[in-house]
Write a structure and sequence with these properties.
This is Thiol-disulfide isomerase or thioredoxin. It is a single chain. The chain has 188 residues and is of the alpha+beta class. The chain has two domains: 1-40; 48-177, Glutaredoxin (3-Layer(aba) Sandwich). The protein has helices at 2-39, 52-55, 61-70, 75-82, 99-114, 169-177, and strands spanning 48-50, 88-94, 122-126, 148-153, 156-162. α5 links the parallel β2 (88-94) and β3 (122-126).
Length: 188
């Protein structure tokens, strides 16, 4: 009987300690959560049709300008791109909240600059996290991932680079505008 009583008492103490430890963990988690919420910087998201110059202004300049400046495209591919008739247009869908967009879009603009591409032929659409805009620029275009670079010739889609290039932005771009076989990252 004494052994049973001791076993019950030990169990009660053990359960009591575990409950107290669990309560302390919950309280600690709540404190951490509150701390993260209060210290998280506010993110200003661009939504709608914009231009490269909008991305070169704060708060976007802190990621756009260094990424554009530091990217070194393949010189041979750039030379080939410069010699192609530039009778195409490009629509870019991106999120200013998206890490892939923050990397790929400045690089893409660097390539366009290096081949002297007319930026009036580029439409930049910034989307919210559900990849939509109030004006519905994305409607009917199956924008599933950002960034998405859509190349058009005579108002007909040639192809697109989705989220990240298969080889490199400039090599993928060359394949698309020379109408070589090309499948983007998410195409089967």
């Amino acid at each position: 009987m004494k052994k049973i009583f001791l076993l019950i008492l030990t169990s009660i103490l053990f359960i009591g300690c575990k409950t107290k430890q669990l309560q302390d963990t919950v309280a600690l988690s709540k404190d951490i959560k509150e701390e993260v919420i209060t210290e998280e910087p506010k993110e200003i998201i661009l939504i709608g049709q914009h231009s490269k110059s909008d991305l070169q202004q704060e708060p976007y300049a802190n990621w756009f300008n260094p990424e554009e400046k530091s990217y070194v495209p393949n010189k041979e591919t750039l030379f080939s791109l410069r010699n192609i008739n530039q009778d195409y247009t490009i629509t870019i869908f991106m999120g200013t909240w998206c890490d892939d967009s923050k990397q790929q879009v400045p690089r893409f603009y660097k390539i366009l600059n290096d081949i002297d591409f007319d930026l009036s032929k580029v439409k930049l659409i910034t989307v919210d996290k559900s990849k939509t805009t109030p004006e519905k620029h994305e409607e009917g275009l199956n924008i599933t991932n950002v960034p998405t670079f859509i190349f058009y010739k005579d108002n007909k889609e040639l192809n697109r680079i989705v989220e990240s290039p298969v080889e490199s932005l400039e090599k993928d771009m060359f394949k698309i505008i020379t109408e070589q076989p090309y499948k983007h990252t998410y195409e089967n």
